[in-house]
Amino acid sequence: MKDEKIIELFFERNENAVSQATDKYGTCCQSLARSILRNEEDAKECLNDVSHKLWSSIPPTRPQSLKAYMLKLTRNRAIDMYDIKNAAKRGNGETAACFDELSECLASQESVAESVEASELAKVINELLKSEKPLARKIFLQRYFYMLTVSEIANANSIGESRVKMSLQRTRNRLAEKLSKAGWR
Amino acid sequence: MKNKNIVDAIGMVDDKMLLDAQPNGNKPQSRHVKSSLMKWVSLAACVCLVAGIGIFALVSKNGSVNTSDVDASSANGATKPSVTDTNINSSKFEDKIIYFDSSDEQEAVDRLPKWDEMTIEDKYSDLKLDTVIESEKCGKMDMSHIYITNSHELDIADLGEKIGTANVKGYDHYEEIEHTMYVAVYEIKSVAPHCAVAAELSKGKYYVYINHSYKPQTLGEFIDDLSLRENISFGGAGLGYFDENMQHNQIVFEDSIDVGDVFDIVMNDRSIEAMKDYDAHWFQSEIIGLSVNIEKLGYKNISMQVTEDGYLTTNILATGKAFYIGTDACYALRDYVVDNYKGYRLVYVDVNDDIQDSLNDTQDSSSVSSSDDSATVSTVISQGKEPMPE
Question: Which of A98, A41, A74 lies closest to B4 in space, CA to CA?
Fold first, then answer.
């Protein structure tokens, strides 16, 4: 079923909308949740939460891309779940490493970091990514949106891990520079 | 979480960029390597680029290297550049000229094939077993792993006992439909089933599936699970280093490296524990890398290398594995290959430059480190068309 039709089902409050959406994009969403949570059961629970969120958020939201919308909901929910489950052992694991790498781009002082709106940061990040080469952009998003490990990214793109690390380092440096110019670092 | 706002901000990137970057179900893309030379040429180019950038940035105005800065760059997580190594006699290597075309577009990405264009082993990328089995090789074991296709048909002679049945899944990215198929699953002879299995995707045809999340506890376990002494072969080797004149040298060794000797030098202590946080660790520069083949599983031209901080690392079974073997063993492997195999020093010439000028430049720069009577071999490549080594 086409995305537009599925979204119409949501607007009609037809309960088939959720199953149509999860049948179509559930696999990729669960895969993303698995990358963040590193646990199959948690990934399933996350997908279940995303289904509820879909139902409650459409309408009023009318996503341009249902797939991207679901992936974003999944990532947000998985990160929240990750935070709750790892509150006691913060700093451990691949996902934490991912967050720490990103955090280095921003000021270390909590007061500065907290004052920056995520939406303002998103504008800078979008600007930066648009100016990056396609492969560098892909590697950055696979690491920090899809939360893949360095070796998973290397495999997915048929390149060496050192090249992935180098690309990430360079993009992070450029992001830090942009944030610094904006006074956020 | 530190600075959660930036993590949230990444979640707001443009939909198109997000969908373009979507990984293909974690499935590694097929690699086709035309020759071992090409692989090492690419490797050497990569080493040169990384090390060259580092050293360029660290050379002070009077031309010497500031070693304190080298250490600082390492502490910041950057790849540590190769340092001067006067233990290698550069004059023993013949030059091999590599012509390349710098104008080639290097970011070109192949079109994702449509479902009907894919082979059956590429279509069904994921296999999940939910069972506990009794393996002849490893005894009772939990098999609830996700296996990923290695796009390789198993030789029937390597087919082991039947383990059970499983669903294999594939995803049609154009029609956005998930396909599933019910198949019989088998062990692969001399390979532990929690490392890899074979699935009968069509009548009498068996394909290799790899457990990417396999993590051995020790080097001995890794060797045993894959029967590496029996199943591995080395296709050649490559190294990059700076000589006493700060000239960067890229050396390739094309002949197969002896498996028994490599085991004796770097894999003889079976009790060494595997690194647990491989992806979070920034390894120092590679001292030497070997091209690895495990034909039974369909692996050709993957890699195993030793690093300046004393690790043996490899991407066998798709995800990184590292074992601390000590710097002595790492350099011993480098010395063994240099002393026992014929190496060629690569010299790059851009076909867009004036050929004669480039050759003159090359000869000028290489004269400081290579003997006058060293022969020159010429090869033409088009850089960027070949896959980088894994």
Answer: A98
Q: Tell me: do A37 and A110 sit in the same domain.
A: no
Cβ–Cβ under 8 Å, residues B385 and B104: yes
> Where among A18, A51, A85 does a domain terminate?
A85
Nearest CB to B23 within list A97, A156, A158: A156
Give the mean model confidence (pLDDT) for residues A106-113. 52
Domain total for chain A? 2
A37 and A81 Cβ atoms separated by less than 8 Å: yes
- Whether B382 and B101 have beta carbons less than 8 Å apart is answered as yes
- pLDDT bucket at B81, cuts 50 / 70 / 90: very low
The verdict on A34 and A81 lying in the same domain is yes
Instruction: State the ipTM, two decimals.
Output: 0.81
Interchain CB contact of B86 with A (< 8 Å): no
Question: A77 and A146 share a domain?
Answer: no
Q: Cα distance from A178 to chain B (closest Cα, Å)?
A: 13
Q: Is B360 exposed, middle or buried (0-12, 13-18, 19+ CB in 10 A)?
A: exposed
What is the domain-level CATH number for residue A104? 1.10.10
> CB–CB of A47/A33 below 8 Å?
yes
For residues A72 and A26, membership in a common domain is answered with: yes
Q: Are residues A99 and A75 in the same domain?
A: no
Cβ atoms B381, B294 nearer than 8 A: no
Say how many C-beta atoms besides its own lie within 10 A of residue B366's C-beta: 17
Alpha-carbon distances of A179 from A100, A126, A165, B376, rounded to whole Å:
16, 12, 21, 50
Report helix angle A3-11 to A66-85, nearest 10. Answer: 70
The domain of A46 spans 3-85
Q: Where are the domains positioned within chain B?
A: 36-106+217-380, 115-211
DSSP-based three-state secondary structure for A109: coil
| CB within 8 Å of A111: residues ≥ 6 apart | none
Across the interface, whether the CB atoms of B27 and A156 are under 8 A apart is answered yes
Pair A78, A101 in one domain: no
Which residues on chain B are in Cβ contact (under 8 Å) with A106? 3, 5-6
Closest chain B residue to the Cα of A131, Cα to Cα: B17
Q: Tell me the pLDDT tens digit for each residue of B278-309.
A: 877 778 778 899 999 999 999 998 889 999 88
- Same structural domain, A76 and A107: no
Indicate the residue among A41, A68, A85 that finishes a domain. A85
Between the alpha carbon of residue B237 and those of residues A159, B328, B337, the distances in Å are 18, 19, 8
Contacts of A124 in chain B (CB under 8 A): 9
Lookup: tokens for B57? 């940035």
Q: What is the pLDDT of residues A73-90, one digit of tens each?
A: 999 999 888 888 776 554
Burial bucket for residue B86 (CB in 10 Å: 0-12, 13-18, 19+): exposed
In this complex, which of B26, B178, B278 lies closest to A156 when CB atoms are compared?
Answer: B26
Is A147 found in the same domain as A169?
A: yes
CATH number for the domain including A33? 1.10.1740.10
First to last CA, chain A: 46
- b/e string for B30-45 if b means 16 or more Cβ within 10 A? bbebeebbbbbbbbbb
